[in-house]
Specification:
This protein has 379 residues and is an alpha/beta fold. The structure holds S-adenosyl-L-homocysteine (SAH) and iron/sulfur cluster.
């Protein structure tokens, strides 16, 4: 057995490194240049969990890597399977922290929730989406969100963001899905605020989009933000992937109460950033709006929402609230949702409703990981 890479080493984390950085490392170790590409492909194309698996790399090279670098691989700690096919993974980091990733199959065509829905693409394409986390916990403090109750424990590295995809691909393969890499779409909508971990998120995107790696298309990745305006601007300039904005309220008074980020960047500044967001290659911004009973779900809210969106080439996803016991918010129910949509539509705004995935398995953001952290404390 090879030593696990970097058990003690303070060295660089291999899965977070670009091909160019691996090339420098390989060079420094006096190895042949093509080894960098081989290593990169093991890490990101095959999604290898360990150096042990990398059978065509010389043992001496792998031993050197193990001594001088780290390879962080997540382990699957718990999986919950919903009757609708959704699978929620609780993943463990090397130091024993928990994060979540949620797999949403959609083999059957038209999806209702869909930041990925592309007008130019046939709706019948097989779509298997993973929702990934970007932080352990979150610093943004949204009142309705379970992840917020953890606070921010730490940022995930680029390698850990990517590895959620690789671990779930391996699990889906083991379940018999035919493809070598079953996942087709990614949404950065799990635990954490992606634009609050900007550098690592950008790095993870470059790795996941890399042709020699997982080779995702930028049209099939969406990053969701609670509204960090300066980073939305930067993201628009520096990335081609799609953006979703969690609006969730129509006045600053209301929004600041739900989402403290609004005190720093208000709705007007957020709308301004979205208006200026570069729409290269037909990419449109999606607005997310979680309906909270008696808070933001009235007809007046719908009218104000339509007003905010007037003239913008955006899409709207209405999200039924997945209740978190103890946070004090409720799901308004199907009838209110339908009425809200009707008002939007009467004001010229077409909305989609996010399918309520995995209700039976507490699939809302943060629920499973918070439970895991409690179990560990109790044990
Ligand atoms: N931090 C980012 C991405 C993660 S949250 C953001 O806020 O956009 C992803 C989405 O889940 C957000 O739109 C958020 O409003 C929503 N959300 C959080 N908790 C929820 C819950 N219990 N039920 C339904 N949606 C929830
Ligand atoms: Fe963080 Fe998003 Fe949850 Fe707000 S909704 S606390 S930004 S994860």
């Amino acid at each position: 057995m090879l030593p696990r890479a970097g058990e003690n080493a303070q060295g660089p984390e291999l899965r977070s490194m670009s091909l160019g950085e691996l090339a420098l490392l390989v060079d420094r170790m006096g190895e042949k240049q093509y080894r960098a590409r081989q290593l990169f492909r093991w890490l990101h194309f095959r999604g290898a969990a360990s150096l042990e698996e990398m059978s065509d790399l010389p043992r001496s090279f792998r031993e050197r890597l193990a001594a001088e670098a780290r390879l962080d691989t997540l382990s699957i700690d718990a999986v919950q399977q919903s009757i609708d096919g959704t699978r929620k993974y609780r993943l463990r980091t090397r130091e024993g922290k928990f994060i979540e990733a949620v797999y949403m199959p959609d083999e059957a065509g038209p999806a209702s929730f869909d930041p990925e829905a592309d007008e130019e693409e046939p709706q019948t394409r097989v779509r298997r989406t993973l929702c990934v986390s970007t932080q352990v916990g979150c610093a943004m403090g949204c009142g309705f969100c379970m992840t917020a109750t953890m606070g921010l424990l730490r940022n995930l590295t680029a390698g850990e963001i990517c590895d959620q995809v690789y671990r779930v691909n391996a699990d889906l393969r083991a379940l018999g899905l035919p493809a070598a890499r079953p996942l087709t779409n990614l949404v950065y909508m799990g635990m954490g605020e992606p634009l609050h971990n900007y550098a690592n998120v950008m790095r993870s995107l470059a790795l996941l989009l890399h042709e020699e790696g997982a080779n995702f298309s930028h049209r099939h990745i969406t990053v969701s933000t609670s509204g960090l305006v300066p980073n939305i601007v930067r993201f628009g300039e520096e990335s081609l992937v799609k953006l979703a904005v969690s609006l969730n309220a129509t006045t600053d008074q209301q929004r600041a109460r739900l989402m403290p980020v609004d005190k720093k960047w208000n709705i007007a500044s957020l709308m301004e950033a979205v208006r200026k967001f570069p729409s290269r290659q037909g990419r449109r911004v999606t607005f997310e709006y979680v309906l909270l009973e008696g808070v933001n779900d009235s007809d007046e809210d719908a009218v104000r929402l339509a007003g905010l969106l007037r003239g913008l080439p955006v899409k709207v996803n209405l999200i039924p609230y997945n209740e978190n016991p103890g946070l004090g918010f409720g799901d308004p129910g199907a009838e209110r949702l339908a009425a809200f949509r009707k008002v939007l539509s009467a004001h010229g705004v077409v909305s989609m409703v996010r399918k309520n995935r995995g209700r039976d398995i507490s699939a809302a953001c943060g629920q499973l990981a918070v439970q895991g952290a409690r179990e560990v404390r109790a044990g």
